[in-house]
TrEMBL record:
Transmembrane region(s): 7-24
InterPro entries assigned: SGNH_hydro, SGNH_hydro_sf
Protein name: GDSL-like Lipase/Acylhydrolase
Matching Pfam families: Lipase_GDSL_2 (PF13472)
Annotated SGNH hydrolase-type esterase domain residues: 53-214
Keyword check for Transmembrane helix: yes
Gene3D superfamilies membership: Galactose-binding domain-like (2.60.120.260), SGNH hydrolase (3.40.50.1110)
Domain of life where this protein originates: Bacteria
Alphabetical keyword list: Membrane, Transmembrane, Transmembrane helix
Length: 362
């Protein structure tokens, strides 16, 4: 007996649909599976959450005894264990970094995948390089840049447990309130934890695993509280600081050079008195250079005035983007970097080197 082809076709179509439905049910949830809803809606509907950390050594979890004891890994585990919500992180972090460096590195990234949640972890290093007005301007510029790249993202600002400069902490709090970001101030949490600073840190600055547990717990609790309060995600209002709308650009062509030689992507010199000079237009200046175990000091002059001395020593080689100064008058300027022949390294027996790639300005 022959099979009726016409009756077989609908049966095959139904079977195919059922098979596809079964496969789709078995496909695991993917990161960033729905970009149309915010992080709190994703949490409530059980979707994975994509987050980004922009920060310094505490941002990257330095001080934790094991990788799974950093604050963000403990937060991931907490979300997964308690709520079955996967978190997937991306990181723009560097030990010793400032908000200026975070802004430049974020601006240089070629790919910007969707993010639901962004953490900012700065302050402790910034106070070494800039005053509170420069910090406020740069931190706000970073928040605005991140929000423009990720319009639906919620913003969490972390006031580091080690930050002793109240005016910098106040600036973070003020900006958080203005943008509707969630500020997690770890200073009172550490103080009221019942543990000593020594028990919670590796070196009285960087938290250890126990210290980072306090970070993860505090962030998690604030996140849940935001859901209860039906909080709206941070917005992009008018600027709080009049000059925070700047964008950073890089200038790699020098005007004058003496004693420096091109080497490995940098202009390099170990000779005292070597000079490299650039011209630029802008009110802010930074420099792209290599910090390394044989790094030396370099004096910075702008328009004939000595501004600062930069230390390029670091225990391991890392390209860095250092803030130099802000508030320069409008118009053209000349910056000169001059090798001192000195180093901050205590045990360096070799001649110290200075390696400069370019300048950064607004």
């Amino acid at each position: 007996m022959k099979t009726n082809a016409k009756s077989f076709i609908p049966f095959a179509a139904i079977a195919t649909i059922l098979l596809i439905s079964y496969i789709l049910q078995k496909v695991p949830k993917t990161y960033g599976s729905d970009d149309s809803i915010n992080v709190y809606q994703k949490f409530q509907s059980g979707q994975p959450i994509q987050y980004l950390v922009i920060g310094d050594s505490i941002g990257r979890g330095s001080g934790a005894e094991k990788p799974n004891l950093t604050w963000f890994k403990q937060l991931e585990n907490k979300m997964n264990d308690a709520n079955d919500i996967p978190l997937h992180g991306d990181y723009v972090v560097q030990s010793g970094s400032t908000a200026f460096e975070g802004l430049f590195k974020l601006s240089q990234r070629r790919k910007h995948d969707h993010k639901d949640l962004i953490f900012f972890v700065f302050g402790e290093n910034d106070r070494k390089y800039m005053n509170v007005d420069d910090f406020t301007m740069t931190y706000e510029a970073l928040m605005r840049k991140a929000k423009r790249l990720h319009p639906n993202a919620e913003l969490f600002t972390i006031t580091e447990s080690s930050l002793k400069y109240e005016e910098f902490a106040s600036a973070i709090g003020l900006l958080s309130k203005h943008y509707g970001a969630t500020n997690v101030d770890m200073r009172p949490i550490f103080k009221n934890s019942g543990y000593t600073e020594k028990q919670l840190t590796k070196d009285l600055v960087h938290p250890n695993g126990l210290g980072y547990k306090l970070y993860a717990d505090a962030i998690y609790e604030r996140f849940l509280d935001n859901i209860k309060q039906e909080k709206a995600v941070a917005g992009l209002p008018t600027k709080l600081h009049a000059r925070s709308g700047f964008e950073l650009s890089e200038i790699d062509h020098y005007e004058k050079m003496s004693g420096f030689r091109p080497m490995g992507g940098y202009f390099t010199s170990s000779e005292k008195g070597s000079v490299i000079q650039y011209t630029f237009k802008g009110s802010m200046l930074g420099v792209k250079l290599l910090r390394s175990p044989d790094g030396g000091e370099v004096n910075v002059w702008i328009d004939g005035n000595e501004i600062t001395t930069l230390n390029t020593w670091w225990p391991f080689a890392r390209e860095r983007y250092l803030f130099v100064t802000n508030g320069l008058r409008p118009g053209s300027h000349t910056v000169r970097f001059e090798v001192t022949g000195r180093t901050k390294a205590m045990d360096l027996t070799d001649i110290p080197y200075v390696r400069i790639a370019s300048i950064i300005t607004d």
